[in-house]
């Protein structure tokens, strides 16, 4: 059966909500995270996002997209004011609570309190992480870039701290997200669990890729002696 073809004319003819759902879905499965922030008065905020992307490892950069301005943007305001925020992975245990944070709460309301999640503060990091999350990143702001095509903003941050269960860290440094029960999202409202197919070896031109165990390639472990000592 031939696939259905939709042109730009077809997309423009759709009602706004249908077009939003369709275009959000074609990007495929995405990570779903909670951004934790607080303002200069110590009032915390929590917002669900599905646009977190890896931007580099040296330095370790993470980005996410803030939609065009259509009113107050509490998360962005707090990040610009303090320069710090957390990115928290969402699991099967609280994905519904994470979704609820997308409701238009007032600036004076804490989404942590409103949805039933717990803010956790570290003495050396000013933004709250989500206590229920098994993988949280403490981020310091590096860049703010406006996307001229639609005035969305790409927020680029550098990983300053990582909180993760030691059991999920494999000998080669890989973090097994599936063990942590982390979910994905398609579109804006469809949440999914994952099932690993296989870890594969690094691709090379002189040989075919081959399957790895969940622990990775033992031949690479010796080079990670310092990493083993840290874990």
Please describe what this structure looks like.
This protein is α+β, with helices and mostly antiparallel strands and 231 residues long. It contains 6 helices and 14 strands. The protein is globular, with a radius of gyration of 20 Å. The mean pLDDT is 91. Residues 32-168 form the Flavin reductase like domain. Belongs to the flavoredoxin family. Keywords: Flavoprotein, FMN.
What is the beta-strand fraction? 25-35%
Domains (count): 1
In total, the number of strands is 14
Note the run of SSEs as H and E.
Answer: HHEEEEEHEHHEEEEEEEEH
Number of helices: 6
Structural class from helices and strands?
Answer: alpha+beta
Rg on CA atoms, Å: 20 Å
Please name the defining characteristics of this protein.
single chain; globular; three-stranded antiparallel β-sheet; 19% helix; Pnp Oxidase, Chain A; alpha+beta
Short structural summary:
This is Flavin oxidoreductase. Keywords: Flavoprotein, FMN. With 231 residues, this protein is α+β, with helices and mostly antiparallel strands.
List the helices and strands and how they pair.
Layout: H1 8-13, H2 16-26, E1 30-31, E2 33-38, E3 44-49, E4 53-57, E5 60-66, H3 74-82, E6 84-89, H4 95-100, H5 111-115, E7 119-122, E8 125-130, E9 135-147, E10 152-164, E11 184-186, E12 190-192, E13 199-200, E14 211-212, H6 225-230
Antiparallel strand pairs: 1-11, 2-3, 2-6, 4-5, 5-10, 6-9, 7-8, 9-10, 11-12, 13-14
Domain Flavin reductase like: 32-168
Pfam family, one: Flavin_Reduct
Protein name: Flavin oxidoreductase
């Amino acid at each position: 059966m031939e696939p259905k073809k939709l042109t730009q004319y077809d997309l423009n003819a759709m009602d706004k909500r249908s077009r939003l759902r369709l275009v959000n879905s074609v990007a495929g499965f995405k990570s779903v995270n909670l951004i934790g922030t607080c303002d200069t008065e110590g009032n915390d905020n929590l917002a669900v996002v599905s646009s977190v992307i890896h931007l580099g490892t040296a330095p370790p950069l993470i980005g996410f997209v803030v939609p065009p301005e259509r009113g107050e943007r509490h998360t962005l305001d707090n990040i610009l004011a303090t320069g710090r925020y957390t990115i928290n992975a969402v699991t099967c245990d609280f994905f519904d609570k994470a979704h609820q944070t997308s409701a238009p709460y007032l600036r004076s309301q804490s989404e942590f309190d409103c949805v039933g999640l717990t803010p956790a503060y570290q003495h050396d990091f000013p933004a709250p992480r989500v206590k229920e999350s098994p993988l949280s990143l403490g981020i310091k702001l590096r860049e703010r870039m406006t996307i001229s095509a639609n005035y969305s903003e790409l927020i680029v941050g550098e990983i300053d701290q990582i909180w993760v269960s030691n059991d999920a860290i494999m000998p080669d440094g890989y973090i097994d997200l599936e063990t942590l029960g982390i979910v994905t999202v398609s579109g804006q409202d469809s949440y999914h669990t994952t099932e690993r197919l296989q870890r594969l070896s690094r691709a090379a031109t002189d040989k075919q890729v081959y399957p790895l165990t969940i622990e990775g390639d033992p031949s690479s472990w010796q080079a990670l002696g310092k990493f083993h000592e840290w874990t």
